[in-house]
Amino acid sequence: FDDIIKKHNKSKIKTHFPFEEYYMSRNYPDFKLNINAIEESKQDIQNAIHSRSNNPFDSTWQSIGPGNIGGRFNCLASNPENDSVIYAGSPCGGIFKTTDKGQNWNPIFDDQSYLTIGHIAINPKNSNVVYAGTGDVNISGAAFIGNGIYKSTNAGQSWTHLGLIQESIIS
After folding, report:
1. Is the pLDDT reported for residue 7 higher than 60?
2. SS3 state at 83
3. Were 16 and a residue from 20, 53, 55, 108 both cysteine, which residue would form a disulfide, CB within 3.0 to 4.6 Å?
């Protein structure tokens, strides 16, 4: 990457601030970082969020823990027949399910050999059928790969591996 920048800029490489490398890598071939365009895009997104009539960000959020570790989730899937039921897929922790609109969460994928979840889909005609794609869709410093697609026919109580082992990330 440094060689490409040197070749195109023909000048001394500058030290970049956090996330500039991220933006620069997406600005090939001129490598010009347009901060104003980024800020305008952020403002457009904020305006769109605040102009929605049913804005989920207007409600008060409360941390319900855990507070001693960090983590993230790649995906959420809400049951189309029952909005109290939500599935959350973690890049390193499997699938969690709530049946009370997020007040309590339980792990439902811990028995599987790959706990990296990239996508969850619920069959809209039968909400007991849930599919899980494995592999971390947000590749960072290290890729957390998966081993294909899983299917549950009992709302996540048990899972069957369907295949696609060669696909490392399913999103």
Report:
1. no
2. coil
3. 20
Which residue matches tokens 């081993």?
Answer: 147
- Would residue 66 be called left, alpha or beta, if left means φ above 0 and alpha means ψ between -120 and 50 degrees? beta
Residue with tokens 């102009």: 51
104/88 Cα distance (integer angstroms): 12
Cα 108 to chain centroid, rounded: 18
* DSSP label of 50: H
Amino acid at 153: T
In this structure, the dihedral spanned by the alpha carbons of residues 145, 146, 147 and 152, taken in order and rounded to 10 degrees, is: 180
pTM above 0.70, yes or no: no
pLDDT on residue 52: 61
**What is the mean pLDDT of the segment spanning 73-93?**
87
Q: How many CA atoms lie within 13 A of 50 on its CB side?
A: 6
144 class by beta-carbon count within 10 Å (0-12 exposed, 13-18 middle, 19+ buried): buried
Mean pLDDT within 42-63: 67
